[in-house]
Design brief:
By secondary structure, this protein is of the alpha/beta class. Helix content is 36%, strand content 25%. The chain has one domain: Rossmann fold (3-Layer(aba) Sandwich), CATH 3.40.50.2020. 28% of the residues are buried. The structure holds zinc ion. Zinc ion binds next to helix 5.
Amino acid sequence: MTPPQRKQDAVLDAEAREKIHLDILKRTGAYHANDHILLPAGHHTGEFIEKNLVITEPSFTEGLGAVIAKHFAQWPIDVVLSTGPGALILSHCVARAHPSRPLLAYAIKRVSGGKRRVTLPAEFHKLIGLGTKVLLLEDLVSTGTTLKLLIELVEHRGGQVVGIGALWRRTKKAEVAGKDVFSLVTRDFPTYPPDACPLCKKSVPLNEEFVKRREARKPSSSQEKGEN
Ligand SMILES: [Zn+2]
């Protein structure tokens, strides 16, 4: 018998795993494909991830969290730090499944004057200090800016970022600021300005549901901004 081609098998395994994760996201209604979607910035796309819907099926969230925890199981971790409340439930599932039984904390993301800012709430300061081993958890990695800021924050406090777990990575590089990113799905989907959109050219009806839904949410988010 010929031995299996290990490298090829590993690639196939990764592809198969990724397909399973994508199917799970589809089941929760978070991942939309084969559509023609209007994005809030006015661009069009054929697929879309509504990351908030990922957590609506708790057993799926637990399963996905366990996959990330397993990937980082060989490293001792003191704290799983969510990039924000958005990734907190997945972060909880990762922390629950990791053999080190790490603690859990979350940062707060803000944009002020066009600049992104991450803050560690004061009550979590005692959790991250000199030598603390931290696993960062993000839902959707696009530019990696939030993660870079969070790495700076942890290192400034004397902690060490062991790695980054993510639900979805849109970037080509599997690292941010020299830290490995392990994501359940790695996929970038192209977005087009309306005048260059191939779906418009094919006269596929435009789905404006996501933008409308977002507009309906505006009053409450404006209110929250005003309080800061
Ligand atoms: Zn279009």
